[in-house]
C-alpha cells in the first residue's frame, strides 16, 4: 500500500498527470451531481475581526461563505464597467456573483471541464456573462483582452503555475489587475510568491487563513449532512476530504499553520504589458 501511495504521489507531481486528474474529477462532479443549487466549490471566508457582513440578496445567503471569499479576493479593485475573465470558473457561482454585484460590463468564465461549462451555461443566464472551455495555461484570448483576471482556489490544480501567470500577464490590459486567492504548504510560500510575481507588480497580499477556517467551521455541519445524504457511501470519505471537513487532513493543516491561504492583488505594469 505504501508503494502504491508513493507511486500516486510521484505521478501527481507530473504537470500533465495532475492536470488530467483534476479535469477528470471535475468532469465526474458535473456529470454525477447536476444539482443547480450547488454553484460553489471553494472553502469560503468569514470575517474574524468584527467586520460588517456583506449585504446579500436572500437567495444568496446559503452561499454566504463562498461569496465572501470572492468578495475579499476582488474587493480591493473597483470592477465597475470593466471586462473580467475568471479562470477556473467551476460551477459558475463566483462569476455570477461578480456579474450581479460588482457591475462589470462583461464577465467570461473559463474552465477545463466541458461538463462544468455546460452546467454554467444552463444555470447562469445573465446579460454580459458567458462561459467557455479553456486551459489556464493556454488561454484562447487575444493579448490585452481584459481589465482584470480573477482566479479563486483553482491554481493548485494546474500543471504549470508559471505558464498560467504568463497567460494572465498576456491577456491583461495595461495596468490591469490579477485578483488571486489560493492555498499552499507554508514551506512553499516563497517559491509560490516568486512564481506569481514574474512580470507582475504585487499590490497587496493578505493572509486569510483564519477567515477560511472560520468559514469551514460555520459550514461544517450542513456540508457533512449534504455529503451523508447525497453521496454514495464508497465516496463519502473522499468528499469529506475534498470539502476539508473537521477531522480531515487539510482542515488540520490549516489549523496548525502548515498550510496557508493567501489573497493577492497584482497589477500588470504598463512598461511590461504583453512584451
Computed Rg: 18 Å
- Termini distance? 49 Å
Low-confidence stretches: 1-12
Oligomer: single chain
Query: Mean pLDDT, nearest integer?
Result: 90
- Which structural category fits the helices and strands? alpha/beta
Question: Percent helix among the residues?
Answer: 40-55%
Task: Detail the topology: elements first, then pairings.
Layout: H1 2-12, H2 15-32, H3 64-74, E1 83-87, H4 93-101, E2 106-111, H5 114-123, E3 129-133, E4 146-152, H6 161-171, E5 172-185, H7 189-197, E6 201-207, H8 209-230, H9 236-242, H10 249-256, E7 259-267
Parallel strand pairs: 1-2, 1-4, 2-3, 4-5
Antiparallel strand pairs: 5-7, 6-7
Helix pairs in contact: 2-5
Please characterize this protein's 3D structure.
- With 275 residues, this protein is α/β, with parallel strands linked by helices.
- Helix content is 42%, strand content 19%.
- The protein contains ten helices and seven strands.
- Strands 3-2-1-4-5-7-6 form a seven-stranded mixed sheet.
- It is globular.
- The N terminus is likely disordered.
Describe the structure concisely for a colleague.
The chain has 10 helices and 7 strands. The chain has helices spanning 2-12, 15-32, 64-74, 93-101, 114-123, 161-171, 189-197, 209-230, 236-242, 249-256, and strands at residues 83-87, 106-111, 129-133, 146-152, 172-185, 201-207, 259-267. β4 (146-152), α6 and β5 form a beta-alpha-beta unit.
Please name the defining characteristics of this protein.
275 residues, alpha/beta, seven-stranded mixed beta sheet, 10 helices, 42% helix, globular, disordered N terminus
Amino acid at each position: 500500500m505504501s508503494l502504491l501511495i508513493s507511486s500516486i504521489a510521484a505521478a501527481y507531481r507530473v504537470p500533465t498527470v495532475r492536470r488530467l486528474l483534476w479535469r477528470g474529477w471535475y468532469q465526474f462532479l458535473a456529470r454525477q451531481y447536476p444539482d443547480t443549487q450547488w454553484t460553489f466549490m471553494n472553502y469560503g471566508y468569514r470575517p474574524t475581526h468584527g467586520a460588517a457582513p456583506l449585504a446579500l440578496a436572500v437567495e444568496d445567503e446559503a452561499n454566504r461563505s463562498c461569496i465572501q471569499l470572492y468578495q475579499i479576493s476582488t474587493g480591493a479593485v473597483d470592477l465597475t464597467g470593466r471586462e473580467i475573465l475568471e479562470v477556473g470558473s467551476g460551477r459558475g457561482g463566483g462569476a455570477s456573483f461578480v456579474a450581479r454585484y460588482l457591475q462589470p460590463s462583461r464577465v467570461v468564465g473559463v474552465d477545463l471541464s466541458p461538463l462544468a461549462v455546460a452546467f454554467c451555461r444552463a444555470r447562469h443566464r445573465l446579460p454580459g456573462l458567458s462561459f467557455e472551455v479553456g486551459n489556464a495555461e493556454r488561454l484562447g484570448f487575444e493579448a490585452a483582452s481584459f481589465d482584470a483576471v480573477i482566479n479563486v482556489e483553482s491554481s493548485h490544480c494546474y500543471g504549470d503555475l508559471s505558464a498560467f501567470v504568463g497567460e494572465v500577464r498576456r491577456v491583461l490590459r495595461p495596468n490591469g489587475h490579477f485578483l488571486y486567492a489560493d492555498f499552499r504548504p507554508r514551506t512553499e510560500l516563497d517559491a509560490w510568491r516568486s512564481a506569481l510575481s514574474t512580470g507582475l507588480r504585487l499590490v497587496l497580499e493578505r493572509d486569510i487563513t483564519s477567515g477560511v477556517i472560520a468559514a469551514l467551521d460555520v459550514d461544517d455541519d450542513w456540508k457533512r449532512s449534504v455529503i451523508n445524504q447525497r453521496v454514495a457511501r464508497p465516496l463519502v470519505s473522499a468528499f469529506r476530504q475534498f470539502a476539508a471537513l473537521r477531522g480531515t487532513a487539510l482542515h488540520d493543516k490549516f489549523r496548525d499553520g502548515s498550510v496557508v491561504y493567501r489573497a493577492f492583488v497584482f497589477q500588470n505594469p504598463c512598461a511590461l504589458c504583453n512584451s
